[in-house]
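FAD-binding domain-containing protein (Salix brachista), 747 aa
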Amino acid sequence: MGFLGFIKGFSSVYRAKPRIRAYPSFCLHGHCYIQCRTFSHFKDHDDSVLPVLIVGAGPVGLVLSILLTKLGESIIIIIIIYNFNALISRIKCSVLEKSKSFSHHPQAHFINNRSMEVFHKLDGLAEEIQRSQPPVDLWRKFVYCTSLTGPVLGSVDHMQPQDFEKVVSPVCVAHFSQYKLIRLLLKKLEDLNFLICKPEGLNDEPFRGGELLMGHECVKINATGQSVNVTASHLKEGKYTERNISCNILVGTDGAASTIRKLAGIELRGEKDLQKLVSVHFLSRDLGQYLLNVRPGMLFFIFNTEAIGVLVAHDLKQGEFVLQMPFYPPQQSLDDFSPETCKQLILKLVGQELSDIDVIDIKPWVMHAEVAEKFVSCDNRIILAGDAAHRFPPAGGFGMNTGIQDAHNLAWKIAAFVKGIAPSSILHTYETERRPIAIFNTALSVQNFRAAMAVPATLGLDPTIANSVHQTITDGIGSILPSGLQRAVLDGIFTIGRAQLSEFLLNEKNLLGSSRLAKLRHLFEEGKSLQLQFPAEDLGFRIKCIYPSNSTKFIFYLSGFSYLEGALIPDSDSVRAQVPPTGRRRDYIPSSDPGSRLPHMNVRMLSNSFSEACISTLDLLPGDKVEFLLFIAPLEKSYHLAVAALKVAEEFKVSVKVCILWPTDTVKGAETRSKTALAPWENFIDVAEAKKSSNSFSWWSMCQMTDKGAILVRPDEHIAWRAKSSIDDDPFLEMKRVFSAILKVNI
């Protein structure tokens, strides 16, 4: 990474004098020796066994590989600078991708707040995305119309003023196509010395970690003892060649049709075949320029007598679009959607001639709402993440975002296991925490999809009726008809249905049309149409879910917003009343409940040189090592608790940093007082609240606690434990209990 990269990576947190000596009792004769306990069941010295193999190089697999590669990075460089006699390496991982090249199809495009917070820690990736994305005014709206140049039925602005004020998060949401995101992620991997390899350039040497192998398809897995043996097939010199790879942990991030999931024998549960669609990726700078000047938006829902479709405007300046249209096989086939036919459909939806339509790709796809029955299997050796673990409707952009947050939850746990900090049971907490979130997000995305269908239903085009008609023709009485006649009947019924969208009927002077338009306006005003943002569910999640054994549907309730169990210690004060989800936007309310994402507040670093440097509380965790963060106030009992935490951390061989949060008006002498109270430990940081106004909540008030309490935060910025008041019992025994429970270490 280099010295400048080191400084860049730490600039957000260690602007003050960095305190890196986490284990002072191991300092002998002026030389510091960092020790690392390794659990005996992990093959850490066998070079033929790769610690982590990731299958699938989509956004989730790439983010996980970056997070794992970065973990421990700072320690390596500190060792080099200070000549420490220790060897703590990065987490070695390699990635297999069955495709020979990366797709240029835009695919997912909405990145929510929590994912942007994860990207913020990847050497400023969030800031790169924000610089590269289209201006927000070009994509903040969903537009409903009879054609892109015709009457507007309504529009919904999905951005609110607080979305730009960075009150609840240090970053904002983004609109950025998946293939562009993958380019940036690959660049981050290359900066970490990852090699991107084609099959023809490989030899038969064991993987050393840090390779992304294109054109490699996993065809067989066999979990035995302490490792997983993977057989990958690739084309080399015109012949398919198989290669065996042995790894300690296999992570399947290989998408909705996951090979790893199938080979591991893991079933999906939920709703299949919600909708079949055809996706048309095309370019038209003329259309982009028109919409940019006249009718900017992210999604355009178009309903007219000749065609119906949803246009996703990925980039108006570049004129890049994806058109989604309903698809009804077997009466319709993909051959019915030739490039020329698609051009004609696009023109019908646009409402005027365009001379520069360039159809890039045409793909059918099926919408599902399913979650894998388990995320972790084979004695915690095989793990699923992203679309391999859950398949959502695209409504609300939950798919890629949930997968990125899967990777963020998983990375520090894999690192803790590989580094010998925790046993393999820490990996099972990934399923305990993330599967309920996937179940909830599946249900919420289905609910949002149903809300999207409410618009055509209000216009007299109920999609459930269309699907029933199609099913009757396919499987019912219509199945006795010849295929050509089935097609003619289906087309005829759909043509009659679309006639309700005629200008003669759909206008204010027509009694029925006026009534429908009034209902449509009410739908938009009440927030009952398709939603884009879900701040409460995005920045926090606390789900209780039940899966009846005799049902394919999930029953769930929202009971606050955080992980309920896993690598954390819940407390009785965090229990909230259960309420069903509404499917509408709800504001995020900061919480210090165990399992919640750490609330964001800007704080000022206290040091002689950088007294004005402000960062987010989320940035106090480094992101490149397995380190916990303990928030305390500058009180005597709290300092005693911090000393106990540092002693226990030394025993558990895990890093803990103490953050002393000072009230704005009492910061004089802060650093000296903390240094004296915490001696000989130096892994602490003094900060003060950077309030925007005198009316702003204090940190402890925002967390609904007093300053006598304490908050312990995990490496993934989720709260692992809290004490709402001072610890009266032995703080050392309490912190020993806490770390034992979080890391799943028996004491």
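The chain has three domains: 46-424, 467-500, 596-743. The CA atoms of residues 95 and 212 lie 5 Å apart. ok done for today
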